[in-house]
Design a protein that fits this description.
Shape: globular
Oligomer: single chain
Helix content: 10-25%
CATH topology: Beta-Lactamase
Number of helices: 4
Radius of gyration: 14 Å
Length: 158
């Protein structure tokens, strides 16, 4: 565990993660069916309306690898204090340790499987606290990751 991160590359996180993270993974699994990953076209925002504030979509370009925020949910925008849509993830990753946060995305892309992490990270907005995040790869052809869908689980502080 580096930089306060607890990154989990298998499904053992299901034993202790929040219910909303479990639902995000169950949705991703249902949409992929017998494929290794679902495609972006498989994802219907109407089916996960209550998760949308924590959803982030990231475009993935290869050779060289470049990640760009395509859509950023309202919880993430509120936690950051700005909307990074259209911006380079490498320059705007939002984590206690930028390198570790970026590495979570690249691991999901390289391994073509979900990656879970949790970190003791207090947001710029004191009303929110991140309790865990799940990064899930998407692929149009079932082989090359061309998008990442992340779900960031935030708790509201009283």
């Amino acid at each position: 565990m580096k930089g306060g991160y607890r990154r989990i590359l298998d499904r053992s996180f299901l034993d202790h993660c929040g219910e909303r993270v479990r639902r995000a993974l169950a949705y991703w699994d249902a949409k992929r069916g017998d494929r290794s990953m679902p495609a972006r076209a498989d994802i219907d925002p109407n089916e996960i309306r209550d998760l949308l504030p924590g959803i982030i979509l990231i475009d993935v370009a290869h050779d060289p690898l470049r990640l760009t925020y395509r859509l950023v949910g309202s919880d993430e925008v509120e936690a950051r204090g700005y909307n990074p849509t259209g911006m380079d993830v490498a320059k705007h990753v939002f984590a206690a340790t930028a390198a570790e946060g970026y590495r979570t995305y690249t691991l999901a892309i390289e391994r073509r499987q979900p990656v879970y992490d949790e970190e003791p990270f207090l947001c710029a907005n004191p009303r929110l606290n991140e309790v865990g995040s799940l990064v899930m790869p998407l692929s149009n052809d079932g082989e090359t990751v061309n998008m990442v869908m992340a779900f960031i689980d935030y708790r509201r502080n009283q």
